[in-house]
Automatic annotation (TrEMBL), chain A:
This is Peptide/nickel transport system substrate-binding protein. It is found in: Periplasm. Residues 1-24 form the signal peptide. Belongs to the bacterial solute-binding protein 5 family. PANTHER family: ABC TRANSPORTER, PERIPLASMIC OLIGO-PEPTIDE BINDING PROTEIN, PUTATIVE-RELATED, PERIPLASMIC BINDING COMPONENT OF ABC TRANSPORTER. One of its GO terms (biological process) is peptide transport. The lineage of its organism: Bacteria, Pseudomonadati, Pseudomonadota, Alphaproteobacteria, Acetobacterales.
UniProtKB/TrEMBL annotation, chain B:
It comes from Belnapia rosea. GO terms for biological process: peptide transport; protein transport; transmembrane transport. Signal peptide: none annotated. The lineage of its organism: Bacteria, Pseudomonadati, Pseudomonadota, Alphaproteobacteria, Acetobacterales. It is a multi-pass membrane protein. This is Peptide/nickel transport system permease protein. Coiled coil: none annotated. Keywords: Cell membrane, Membrane, Peptide transport, Protein transport, Transmembrane, Transmembrane helix, Transport.
From TrEMBL, chain C:
This is Peptide/nickel transport system permease protein. The lineage of its organism: Bacteria, Pseudomonadati, Pseudomonadota, Alphaproteobacteria, Acetobacterales. Residues 95-321 form the ABC transmembrane type-1 domain. Belongs to the binding-protein-dependent transport system permease family. Its main location: membrane. GO terms for molecular function: dipeptide transmembrane transporter activity. It is found in: Cell membrane. Gene3D superfamilies: MetI-like. Keywords: Cell membrane, Membrane, Transmembrane, Transmembrane helix, Transport.
Length: 526, 279, 336
């Protein structure tokens, strides 16, 4: 009864707020309220805001489309790989042009990959260990050849990370051997469906993009594409939601708080797109340091988190329980591993066993949250409340991403527990179980549980060196089963991404890699 | 008695005093007054974000906790932060200001330059650094606030002292050989109390508000503290829908700060000797 | 007078150096390592170390600071460690927006606060005084972001009179140059449509930001006027029958603004700090939101530059304040 009344109230409020809405929309301009990337160079950054920009301004050899994601030829028409997985050859499409009219050739692809490796920033990390700059070559104008140092299973999956830049334009703006890094940070040299409007950038606040008529895919499939995009970052959720309701914002980021969904759905000018993504929510435990060296204590913790309560009540059901590290819908995730369930009796049982091993329940366990991300806070408080009832003392420490990530460099400084998501950077189990639980990655935030199991290391190492998915899948499944049996972390859910969209938009296409930020499929009325 | 009668005539000041008394009572006896004292840390998922009702007069928050209880329980923390920060800031700032305003030469210059450095130090950056050094907590926030707040007292005391230093009665005191500490404490300080009190009362409110901003940036109180500022900060995500979540802790801040300032105004009128003489 | 100013300007330099030293040390104590963020998700410790070398983060503290100072002396503030963008360019682009907002807020604060304070003092302990005191105190006590959201709900959503956020409507293009100040530039280019649109966008943020300052100014004016009203010369003038109203506006206000003016100087600094929250809610593209981002990403170059900037602005305002005080109250000038 109470819930219905509240829903009614929310709807009434939404319609009230939306009453004057439509007028605030700008004809012919789509207003995005997600953040633009910190700089515009796709070879210096690789994060969600960058994907939101680069998927539009640039093209790659391959691209992920649809949900679940499919790897599709994009600038390349196709590729061949040698049986040992060391030689890769990509054949480029003809007649692709950059925004300045220059043709896109194999030379640009070679330059782009070498530039990524030379800069050594975020997009390079997938390639640095396996690819030398001189081994990316262009036998002819439409062929690019890669020779890897050793076989790397996820190589193809990581290919979409590298945006192809206009080599002549960037070279012309190089300064002191910086590979044009300073210039490209505020300019654009791409071939994508939308072109950056020069001079429209205010760092982290706003930038404008205009539709590129000459995009290689053409526009015949889209009768009413968006002519112009204005990125105007909304810093506060409430401002973003209000903007959506009065029509002045057409498109928000895809992490709307679940409590806002109802109100937006009730509006006449906006709606929420809900898409199952590949982005797992995890509570980390520092396995290398007491008290979490104890398997029994880890199990007690895993049984004390109220998964259903968190997902159903706090997230309103906008998440899927994901009992292991790999997103459920991805290959390599074992279908038969049961995972852990909320059961305080079992938690007490394992706690007793842990105490017998010497765990002192009065000892304070510290969980670090990202204070900018309210959901990590809610999860920690829910956890704290349940742990208190079984006599475990959990202390919440507010922290920032930059600090936590620096602290995870060593097991001594890494927090007892912390909370984060693992997003799709490339669609491969390596992105999750591989980089999270292989001990070779200790010192990176993704491996911050400092889990060590030689059997798992060996399995992951073998899986990485193979190319065929059929051979790799069972290895990842076995490794995952073992990690879950060892209860390395507390795996909570797989995200449902929630993006606010104006009702004048249609044709929204979501893909877990990039979160649906590719604008060329959208149609806009007015 | 005369003082009390005069004070009682000042209606805003009386309102302020009543508010402060109320806040102090809440701070002292909160856990016995709050209807659901366990909601300081418990969570109740089935009654999240319920609007105000008979059972929960201020509604419930994002974890189903009674907001009225948490507002009551939060009084203690708010009072502690405000009093400690302003007390420490005055203890540092007032003596330095007196000295710098009265003395001439290198010492005065040095004090004022150091004051300028701290005054110009952006509060947020300092608070962040301290939060990292000591771990984010109320204590590190209090230290950061103190370190950035004392210069305000120094500045204002300095300006006022400088103004008074040339006054005839100080000349006279110097003439009859009164010592510097005596002049500063017994003659200058009472004469500049009024701006200090005004500044301190503003400071009490200001401190609570800035502590709220620090909570907003994740550098002040840590969950699940029933901190008012933290509650308002957390409620942002649920606006405009769950208006009660932001409004009641916000009102608590407003009313407490209002009380301090009204009371401070009234006190100012009382301690000012010239006002006492004339009315 | 010129000597007075020159002396003040010279004295500022060591303060600014001190400010940089303190800030540099504070930032260096923060464990957050920008190299980790730059290296990205899958980076190995070796890759992170390479980036640290590239940015000189592996050098001794003194060397790093020396390099930084040498850069600052050439007005080169380096590039943001987080974004790779030049810090000076980013700040130059954003500072005008913050200054416009702050000036507007100060204008509203002083324009309303001083008369309100005088009225309250003249009606000491009568109902206009009570009312103004409660209202002005309430102004200080209100949390800026709560007020901001309420104003948005009322004026942008319900009434639809004012825009919800931003500095300019999406359909309009800023005129560009020569000053970087949107209001000034649109005036210089004769673009009254842009000027009008920008003013409409300015109203809500400026009002939100002004509320605390308005209340402070009103209180100090009231206190100052009350003080002066008790001075012997005023009592004397009153005794000889000088018209009360004229006396207040001519003599009393002039003598009581000392405290108020030094408050306005202090307020400017706190308004710039207060802009952090207001800019975030109204999506105002100023340095406030830039600073928050820098803090969250431990971007030392940006934090240092912003600290220095606030310090310079603060020092400039201080000198101007002292100047104003010296003009108002000759005793201060002669004391020097």
């Amino acid at each position: 009864m109470q819930i219905t009344r509240r829903q009614g109230g929310a709807l009434a409020m939404a319609s009230l707020l939306a009453a004057r809405g439509v007028r605030a929309a700008t004809p012919g301009v789509l207003v995005r309220s997600d953040s633009p990337p910190a700089n515009l160079d796709p070879h210096q950054l690789f994060d969600v805001p960058m994907m939101g920009y680069a998927l539009n301004a640039y093209d790659g050899l391959y691209r992920y489309e649809n949900n679940p994601p499919e790897l599709q030829p994009w600038l390349a028409e196709g590729h061949t790989a040698s049986a040992d997985g060391l030689e890769w050859e990509f054949r480029l499409r003809p007649e692709v042009r950059f925004h300045d009219g220059a043709p896109l050739t194999a030379e640009d692809v070679v330059y782009s990959f070498r530039r990524v490796l030379a800069l050594g920033k975020a997009p390079a990390s997938a390639f640095l260990g396996i690819l030398k700059p001189e081994n990316v070559t262009a036998p002819d104008a439409r062929t690019v050849r890669f020779r890897l140092e050793r076989a790397y299973g996820p190589f193809l999956a990581a290919i979409p990370i590298v945006a192809i830049v206009n080599s002549r334009l960037v070279r012309a703006n190089e300064k002191d051997g910086d590979h044009g890094a300073a210039w490209l940070a505020g300019n654009e040299a791409g071939s994508g469906a939308y072109a950056f409007v020069p001079g429209s950038l205010t760092t982290l606040e706003r930038l404008d993009m205009a539709r590129f008529e000459g995009h290689f895919l053409g526009w015949s499939d889209n009768p009413s594409p968006v002519p112009r995009i204005a990125v105007r970052a909304a810093k506060e959720t409430s401002t973003g939601v209000l903007g959506l309701l009065n029509g002045s914002i057409d498109w928000t980021d895809s992490y709307l708080p679940t409590d806002q969904v109802e109100q937006i759905q009730g509006s006449r000018v906006a709606q929420v797109a809900k898409d199952v993504s590949m982005r797992t929510f995890i509570i980390r435990m520092n396995n290398a340091r007491a008290p979490f060296t104890s398997l029994n204590l880890r199990k007690a913790m895993a049984h004390a988190f109220n998964y259903d309560g968190f997902i159903q009540e706090i997230l309103k059901g906008y998440a899927d329980r994901n009992a292991g590290p790999i997103p459920n819908q991805l290959w390599g995730a074992p279908k038969d591993a049961p995972g852990y369930a909320y059961d305080l009796d079992k938690a007490r049982h394992f706690l007793k066993l842990a105490q017998a091993e010497g765990f002192n329940p009065r000892q304070q366990i510290r969980i670090h949250i990202q204070s900018q991300l309210e959901q990590t806070n809610q999860a920690a408080q829910l956890f704290q409340s349940d742990l208190q009832s079984i006599g475990v003392n959990l202390r919440i420490v507010a922290d920032t991403w930059a600090n936590i990530v620096s602290a995870t460099a060593k097991p001594e400084t890494s927090p007892d527990m912390w909370i984060h998501w693992v997003s799709t950077y490339f669609v491969d189990p390596e992105n999750w179980v591989g980089q999270m639980y292989d001990s070779r990655f200790h010192g990176t935030w993704k491996a911050s549980s400092f889990y060590r199991n030689e059997k798992v290391d060996a399995l992951l190492q073998r899986a990485r060196g193979l190319v065929a998915q059929a051979e790799r899948a069972p290895l990842y499944e076995e490794a995952t089963r073992q990690v879950m049996a060892d209860c390395a972390d507390i795996w909570v859910y797989n995200t449902v991404e929630l993006r606010g969209l104006a009702r004048r938009l249609s044709g929204y296409r979501f893909c877990p890699a990039g979160g649906g930020a590719e604008m060329r499929w959208l149609q806009m009325k007015g | 008695m005369l003082v009390l009668r005069k004070f009682l005539r000042d209606i805003p000041a009386v309102i302020g005093a009543v508010i402060i008394l109320f806040v102090v009572i809440l701070a002292l006896f909160g856990p016995w007054i709050a209807p659901y004292p366990e909601d300081a840390s418990a969570s109740h998922l089935l009654r999240r974000l319920k609007p105000p009702s008979a059972a929960y007069p201020f509604g419930t928050d994002n974890l189903g906790r009674d907001i009225l209880s948490r507002v009551i329980l939060g009084a203690r923390g708010a009072l502690k932060v405000a009093l400690v920060v302003v007390g420490l800031a005055m203890a540092i700032g007032v003596p330095l200001g007196l000295l710098a305003g009265y003395e001439r030469g290198v010492l005065a210059e040095a004090i004022m330059r150091v004051t300028d450095v701290f005054l110009a130090l952006p509060q947020l950056i300092l608070a962040l650094a301290l939060a990292q050094l000591l771990g984010p907590s109320v204590e590190s926030a209090m230290l950061a606030l103190t370190l950035t707040y004392w210069p305000f007292f120094t500045r204002i005391v300095h300006a006022e002292t400088q103004r008074l230093r040339n006054a005839l009665f100080i000349d006279a005191l110097q003439g009859i050989g009164a010592g510097t500490p005596r002049i500063l404490l017994l003659h200058i300080l009472p004469n500049i109390l009024s701006p200090i009190i005004v500044r301190a009362t503003i400071g009490l409110g200001f401190t609570i508000l800035v502590a709220a901003v620090l909570g907003f940036l994740g550098m002040g109180a840590t969950p699940p503290d029933p901190d008012w500022g933290l509650a308002v900060a957390q409620s942002r995500t649920y606006l405009p829908n769950a208006w009660w979540f932001a409004t009641f802790p916000g009102l608590a801040i407003l009313i407490a700060v209002l009380g301090f300032n009204l009371l401070g105004d009234g006190l100012r009128d009382l301690v000012d000797p010239r006002l006492r003489r004339s009315r | 007078m010129a000597g007075f100013i020159a002396r003040r300007v010279l004295l500022v330099l060591p303060s600014l150096l001190g400010l940089l030293v303190v800030t540099f040390l504070l930032i260096r104590t923060v464990p957050a390592d920008p190299a980790v963020a730059l290296a990205g998700d899958n980076a190995t410790p070796e890759q992170i170390e390479a980036i640290r070398r590239q940015y000189g983060l592996d050098q001794p503290l003194l060397v790093q600071f020396g390099r930084y100072l040498a850069g600052v002396a050439r007005l080169d503030f380096g590039a943001s460690q987080f974004s790779g963008r030049p810090v000076a360019a980013d700040i130059a682009q954003r500072l005008p927006a913050t200054l416009e907002l702050t000036f507007a807020a100060l204008l509203i604060g002083a324009g309303l606060g001083i008369p309100l304070g005088v009225v309250a003092a003249m009606n000491h302990n009568r109902w206009p005084d009570f009312l103004l005191r409660i209202l002005s105190v309430g102004g200080i006590a209100i949390a800026a972001f709560w007020l901001a959201i309420m104003l948005q709900l009322l004026f942008a959503m319900q009434l639809g009179w004012l825009p919800l956020r931003g500095q300019l409507s999406v359909g309009l293009t800023p005129p560009g140059g020569p000053t970087g100040f949107l209001l000034l530039d649109s005036l210089l280019h004769g673009r009254l449509d842009i000027l009008g649109d920008a003013l409409r966008h300015l109203v809500l943020p400026a009002v939100t930001l002004s509320v605390g300052g308005l209340a402070t100014i009103a209180r100090f004016t009231r206190a100052g006027v009350l003080d002066t009203l008790q001075k012997d010369f005023v009592l004397y003038e009153r005794a000889v029958g000088f018209p009360r109203r004229r006396m207040v506006w001519i003599y009393v206000l002039r003598n009581s603004v000392v405290a108020t003016v030094s408050q306005i100087g202090l307020l400017f600094g706190s308004l710039i700090a207060g802009a952090v929250v207001v800019e975030a809610i109204y999506d105002w593209p100023g340095i406030g939101s830039y600073t928050v981002q820098a803090i969250l990403t431990a971007d030392a170059k940006v934090m240092l530059a912003v600290t220095l900037l606030v310090g310079v602005i603060y020092a400039a305002v201080n000198i101007l304040t002292d100047l104003a005080l010296a003009l108002i109250d000759p005793r201060i000038r002669e004391g020097r």
